């Protein structure tokens, strides 16, 4: 009797072991199928490039063809990788401040040439604040029509709404225009509303990041895949959609001509004679004597004044931001 019970017990144990092995093999097969499906999904995602929608604005052209519009360079402190700027096509490291200035400069020049904004030089009292404490003029911008067609232009349009409301409350006349430094500050506020806390890294990076996000939505840039939590924290640069390279090249040539012509027509002799390494020039290639100019200001070169004013506006914002050199 005991022998029969022992045999039955062995049979039950064997059946249980076989059943457990069958379940284990089933789970292994399911896991293998899941992994294969994930690999197929990743492969399809890599093969399927996003569809390009919408046209390229001047800021998008400067960003995508940054190797043609921005001088090479690197930030003084590379502690925060998000503050470093790179050319999407070549991968070369660029000067972050110059890239941000070029994005805004190209947008304002294009808007002015299209008759959507009017640039005016107005007398002011010296601010006695850096970077140009004794400058007695400032650049005002008048919106003649609603702005759009590019991320920066749309941000400027919202900034005009904010600034004009503030001017009206103070009893001022919006027809006199908005000081460029106020407009840039309001534009940055609009841009930062679209950025998360982890994406913000200072005025230069935030302007660049805002344009980058719009180019990803349009399909000109391909966002990196972020499969893990660690990947989401890391800053991985997007890649250029190869289908857009021909269009980028064509728009870059047109924008180069536009910026160079604006500098030729509205620039000082210093700006006009500067090496054309960067289309449209840069803040370092202007007549520094304008900083000491006295009224009247009717004949000041508009190109140089725009370059100086952009540098002053962004530098004033940057000086109020935390420095990465603290503790280094």
Summarize this, please?
This protein has helices at 2-47, 58-64, 66-69, 96-113, 151-169, 180-192, 203-218, 229-233, 245-266, 269-273, 302-319, and strands at 85-86, 93-94, 117-123, 137-143, 178-179, 221-222, 239-240.
Describe the structure.
The chain is 53% helix and 7% strand. It has one domain. It has helices spanning 2-47, 58-64, 66-69, 96-113, 151-169, 180-192, 203-218, 229-233, 245-266, 269-273, 302-319, and strands spanning 85-86, 93-94, 117-123, 137-143, 178-179, 221-222, 239-240. With 328 residues, it is mainly alpha-helical.
Approximate helicity band = 40-55%
Category from helices, strands and their pairing: mainly alpha
How is the main sheet built?
A: 3 strands, antiparallel
* CA radius of gyration: 28 Å
Strand order of the largest sheet: 3-4-5
Binned strand content: 5-15%
Q: Name the shape in a single word.
A: elongated
Low-confidence stretches: 43-47
């Amino acid at each position: 009797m005991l022998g029969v019970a022992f045999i039955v017990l062995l049979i039950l144990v064997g059946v249980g072991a076989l059943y457990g092995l069958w379940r284990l093999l089933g789970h292994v097969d399911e896991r293998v199928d899941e992994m294969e499906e994930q690999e197929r999904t990743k492969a399809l995602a890599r093969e399927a490039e996003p569809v390009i929608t919408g046209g390229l604005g001047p800021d998008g052209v400067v960003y995508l063809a940054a190797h043609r519009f921005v001088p090479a360079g690197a930030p003084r402190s590379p502690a925060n990788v998000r503050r470093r700027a790179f050319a999407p096509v070549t991968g070369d490291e660029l000067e972050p401040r110059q890239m941000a200035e070029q994005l805004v400069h190209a947008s304002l020049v294009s808007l002015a040439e299209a008759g959507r904004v009017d640039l005016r030089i107005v007398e002011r009292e010296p601010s006695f604040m850096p970077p140009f404490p004794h400058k007695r003029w400032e650049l005002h911008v008048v919106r003649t029509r609603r702005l759009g067609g590019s991320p920066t232009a749309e941000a400027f349009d919202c900034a005009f709404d904010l600034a004009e409301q503030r001017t009206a409350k103070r009893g001022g006349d919006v027809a006199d225009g908005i000081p460029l430094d106020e407009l840039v500050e309001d534009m940055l506020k609009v841009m930062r509303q679209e950025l998360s806390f982890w994406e913000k890294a200072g005025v230069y990076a935030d302007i660049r990041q805002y344009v980058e996000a719009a180019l990803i939505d349009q399909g000109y840039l391909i966002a990196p895949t972020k499969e893990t939590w660690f990947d989401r924290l890391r800053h991985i640069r997007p890649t250029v959609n190869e289908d857009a390279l021909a269009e980028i090249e064509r728009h870059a040539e047109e924008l180069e001509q536009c910026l160079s012509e604006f500098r030729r027509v509205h620039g000082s002799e210093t700006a006009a004679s500067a090496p054309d390494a960067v289309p449209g020039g840069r803040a370092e290639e202007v007549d520094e004597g304008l900083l000491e100019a006295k009224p009247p200001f009717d004949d000041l070169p508009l190109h140089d004044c725009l370059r100086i004013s952009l540098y002053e506006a962004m530098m004033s914002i940057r000086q109020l931001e935390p420095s990465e050199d603290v503790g280094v």
